[in-house]
Write a structure and sequence with these properties.
heterodimer, A: 251 residues, alpha/beta, Rossmann fold, 2 domains, six-stranded mixed sheet, globular, B: 218 residues, mainly alpha
Chain lengths: 251, 218
């Protein structure tokens, strides 16, 4: 069943067109990976989905509900807040709140959102998520007491606690030491096995091929190629995709 | 004699502390409002506020005291402060609050602007409102960063209160100096230094305690 429909998203910064008409669909429970070189617009696309940037044109709908339509701008902050909760975002730099413990980072937003759940329920749910992330003995630690991999797992738990329809990852392992990427990728793989709907911007090609159902190759603000992840990464059709993948495997 | 001097100086020091406490009470929040103004995206708000900050930080506090106290009478022919002690004290308080609020506003601005944009964005994608982001995420991080520069200003303020005597506001130096005329002795004036030292020592301890309290996160 289709959960996300993105139609002709365009975004300009100071007359430089970063996104030149992006359209794609995503089915519920599927994982989509977005690959492409730096500056191709991958991160901007993710930021548009999470309402951190406002596209100049295009529409975004989730489960058939129009969330964003460039023709009808949303000005009410309360409405915007509700709409962005359809998406979760895990940042490259984690962006945990330093003054809160791992557990408090996860419970902060649900406790402030008054979504009808009791405090005990929210805390129990947060503990369960952290437990699943392998962080049961780290809940009372502050971010600076955690390794990068642990911090990123807390950040994933924090995003999951709000039960988003679609969880987005912006290069989730790029800021990590190579030996710490494994633990984060394992957690994401676990989520894929549980059929969490995800969009992952990544440079980890082996991971994208194994975990994602579909993949998109972005180049210079457009989607150059899309299809099943294994097929796209193992046998790219476009010359530009081949070039990108071979340069990446050389490094 | 020592007891008489000590009691007189203590009385003067009460005036010092009154000016000190009231200045902080008003200038700390006023500084936050000014800092929001100086960071405003609206030029009509930002530019005049930056101009005022420039004037206040660019001229001596002593001059500001004189202008605020004598200015209304000279330029507007209205003596709004009256002629009694209370009027002079209020005029001094206004000058101090305004001056320190401008300095504090710049410290706040530096603190607020040093918070990484990722903290705001993380709050946004979690569906928090602007005020929730400020009060639940940003504020404590800002406080942690500004405690050292604020403590600097506060300790400077302890000593700056002595400037109030240019408009004849009674404080400890005033009382210490009066012994030169009345009894021909100068040591009470030097003795005032001990009061300043002890008070700023206590403040140093207090700020050290606050810094330590906030050291649980980075």
């Amino acid at each position: 069943m289709q959960i996300l429909e993105v139609n002709d998203i365009r975004k300009k910064f100071d007359n430089t067109e970063i996104l030149k008409g992006i359209s794609f669909n995503l089915d519920e429970g599927q994982t989509l990976s977005i690959i492409g070189s730096s500056g191709s617009g991958k991160t901007t696309l993710l930021r548009c989905l999470n309402f951190l940037e406002t596209p100049d044109a295009g529409t975004i709908s989730v489960r058939g509900n129009m969330l964003f339509d460039a023709a009808i701008p949303v000005t009410d902050p309360e409405e915007l807040r509700k709409k962005r909760l359809h998406f979760g975002l895990v940042f490259q730099q984690f962006n945990l709140f330093p003054q809160y413990t791992a557990l408090e980072n996860v419970t902060l937003a649900p406790l402030l959102s008054f979504d009808g759940r009791s405090k005990d329920e929210i805390i129990a749910n947060a503990k369960e998520i952290l437990d699943n992330m392998g962080l049961s003995n780290r809940m009372d630690n502050y971010p600076h007491q955690l390794s990068g991999g642990q911090q990123q797992r807390v950040a994933i738990a924090r995003a999951l606690a709000l039960k988003p329809d679609i969880l987005c990852f912006d290069e989730p392992t790029s800021a990590l030491d190579p030996e710490l990427t494994g633990e984060v990728l394992r957690v994401i793989k676990e989520l894929a096995n549980l059929h969490t709907t995800m969009i992952i911007v990544t440079h980890e090609m082996a991971f994208a091929r194994d975990v994602a159902d579909t993949a998109i190759f972005m180049d210079n603000g457009i989607i150059l190629e899309q299809g099943p992840a294994k097929e796209l990464i193992d046998n790219p059709r476009e010359e530009r995709t081949k070039q990108f993948l071979s340069r990446l495997s050389q490094n | 004699m020592f007891l008489t001097v000590t009691l007189s100086l203590l009385e003067g020091f009460l005036g010092t502390i009154k000016l000190f406490v009231l200045t902080l009470l008003f200038s700390l929040p006023l500084g936050l409002i000014i800092s929001f103004g100086s960071m405003s995206k609206i030029k009509l708000i930002k530019c005049p506020i930056r101009f005022i900050i420039w004037i206040v930080r660019g001229t001596p506090l002593m001059l500001q005291l004189l202008i605020i106290y004598y200015g209304p009478g000279i330029f507007l022919h209205m003596n709004i402060w009256g002629t009694d002690n209370t009027g002079r004290f209020i005029a001094a308080l206004v000058a101090f609050v305004f001056n320190y609020a401008c300095y504090f506003s710049e410290i706040y601005r530096g603190g607020i602007q040093s918070i990484p944009v990722g903290q705001y964005e993380a709050g946004q994608v979690l569906g928090l409102s602007r005020s929730q982001i400020f009060f639940k995420i940003i504020l404590l991080q800002v406080i942690k960063r500004i405690v050292p520069p604020i403590s600097n200003e506060v300790i400077t303020l302890v000593k700056d209160t002595s400037l109030a005597r240019v408009i004849a506001v009674y404080e400890i130096i005033w009382n210490g100096q009066s012994f030169i005329k009345s009894s021909g002795i100068i040591w009470p004036l030097f003795y005032t230094g001990a009061f300043y030292l002890i008070f700023s020592g206590l403040l140093t301890l207090l700020f050290g305690y606050i810094e330590k309290k906030l050291s649980y996160f980075r």
